[in-house]
Amino acid sequence: MRILHFIPSIDPATGGPVEGLKQRCAIYRMSGHEVEVASLDSPEFVQQCNFPAKVVGLGPGWGTYRYSRRAMPWLKANLSRFDRRSRRCGSGSRQCINTIPWSRICRWPAISLSGESR
Prior knowledge:
By secondary structure, this protein is of the alpha/beta class.
């Protein structure tokens, strides 16, 4: 299965959500799944990080909701590469801007931040 996980930041300073994602990536890979992470960090920051999965930096995000002009075009262009049931928007914060647009792109109910369908 090809899995896409969207998170506002892979910066270890943000705490638990990033560590949880690292652990999930390791488990997914051990199970034979391919994992890619989309982040609202800048591409330069992403290159500096030692992350256990491929990370795409779509930021930097601006403002409280970390708006990024590059996020929606990237999702539209790349979403079809991933298995529909595997798409997640997770952050540990209710400030993930892509939850609502994600549902518009996919034409299916928004994914909650915990990964359960709403």
